[in-house]
């Protein structure tokens, strides 16, 4: 692992003894509080009360907007105040909130024959919101299209080309959408969350033309790994997709939990050293690229660790313990992330130096932070 | 004690415990000082586990010595001795096996000690090829350590010592027998090396767990470190239910197959579970044979004596059930009600799992957080 980190530092242009010290000093001279971004996430209180909450880089709560049910991820409308909070699966509502105040600006209702799956993304021009949905009667995934310029009217939908679509992201250029089809069939009559097809599930990663709805690329894992649900992804500026899996097979099965995908090629599976791989507990939460686009982090809340990977070399870099840590967002510095926990903690993490610093303001500890965290740059 | 009586009694105790806990819920889930977790880590990792790793190393060393003697002068008695030493080593390994953490899983060590479950029949396929070619490298423990995990460890040695097809060859020192004996001896010697590494690496791992604190990137609190012990207890039961029992049970009585069980060639699938439960209870209780002290495991965090008593009684019920069953799955499934007995045993293990999740997990505050328990 030490060797891998050294290689990585070279690739980052900060390798060797010469650059280690200056980078350390640079970090020390510019404390985290100078990060002027806002971090925003779904959250929960202790009494089945749910919110979208925002905090600053120090961890100070800026607002808490109550939600009718548990949220999941948030979609950020580019160059606009809108934030889309889509209810987690099987979701019935989505709220459009003001990112500065949390005020509700619009409400989206899921059609009766669909259920929201917690993730959404805006087009680069901010006009259209894309939401992953379950067409449960036909056991297929759907991406719905909502026109933000027309009161968030539902204007179209297209196939996700798989079952159980979850996280989705725009590809570079903004014309295509990458969709993680988890492969799981669920039905609201049976709680809407319990997988009904573990034995036959077929997850895939699809890249779809968002204007025509046509499939452009698709990749699956080998048949032996068909129980690796492809759930969370992030896309680097060069088009590399980082992928986190959730395994629905045996606890002791040796399967990869992380991969990268470059459309047109195969999914490249990656594994951590055994002692870390076991601590990932067959489950990945959030996936996020850093500011450089070379490092990505993958949180593993069941194991209470965040793992870090080099997308260029496909090497595991390091891991940092984070009890119940799941929400993950990149700061504007290479190798640096903010991670939030269901136990109320928030940390800044440095994947290059393997450091974890707790956010200094305790106000954020009053909430349990949900699966995903977004950063709003000022 | 009759199984029916015992099961009913403990169910009643559990209900009573549940009522008690529901009344005392706020107290039961109160914050527990990190020092309390620290004491448990100290006890389990530095007092309880090291002698067991010594015992495993000792048992594999005895096995290697016995095999060496047997190979130099093979006869029926020698084979019986080797089989006896195999069982002794396997007993202690099965107690350690559920502690899936640190050095036990590093570098695939647990798989090198025991490659199981073998879903695709890799070991059988590779063993056939091995017997066809009889490569000398596989009689060299060092070279063997670089070979496929499926050809190392206890299952491979079990194939050598317990498959009836090989017995005559082994004792008559035929060409096949000589190769098999040397291969078996190499496996045992390799196990000695692996268990020695395991024993050597454990103190460093225990130290990292014991030194949990905000500066540690691995274990920021003692409570977080103790979560790994809780998970070993929880997952150990899940593995027994879903793999060790679930695989042979199949989709129904007609689909049941003893050969899908663990160590069924040596007719000890259920004996393995008995020993798994000994190692798992040590996490809760703090005492493991002669090592440790009762009440110094996770049980130390449980402030309800009724709940503690209920948990122990339920655990003992499962061990009593196992004591009434033959060690071999094939033998059990040959009985007219054997399948149902196996289903019942799985039900009892699942009930223990529920107690661990609800009672132990809840009262020790180690049961998992918001995201870990209900993520998406």
Q: Percent helix among the residues of chain A?
A: under 10%
Mean pLDDT of chain A, as a whole number?
92
Largest pleated sheet of chain A: 4 strands, antiparallel
Number of helices of chain A: 3
Q: So what's the overall shape of chain B?
A: globular
Helix content of chain B: 55-70%
Q: What amount of the residues of chain B lies in strands? A: under 5%
Structure classification of chain A: mainly beta
DSSP E strands of chain B, number = 2
Assembly state of the chains shown: heterodimer
Shape of chain A: globular
Order of helices and strands of chain B: HHHHHHHHHHHHEEHHHH
Summed up, the helix count of chain B is 16
- SS content category of chain B: mainly alpha
Can you walk through the features of this model?
The complex is a heterodimer of chains A (378) and B (376). Chain A has three helices and 28 strands. With 378 residues, chain A is mainly beta. Chain A folds into two domains: 1-56 and 226-252 and 272-378, no CATH class; 68-220, Methylamine Dehydrogenase, Chain H (7 Propeller). The longest helix of chain A has 14 residues, at 16-29. Chain B is an all-alpha fold and 376 residues long. Chain B has two domains: 3-20 and 31-42 and 211-368, no CATH class; 57-198, Up-down Bundle (A middle domain of Talin 1), CATH 1.20.1420.20. In chain B, helix 8 (153-162) crosses helix 9 (164-172) and helix 11 runs antiparallel to helix 12. Chain B starts with a helix and ends with a helix. The relative contact order of chain B is 0.14. Residues 1-28 of chain B have low confidence and may be disordered. At the A-B interface, helix 3, strand 23, strand 27 and strand 28 of A face helix 11 and helix 16 of B.
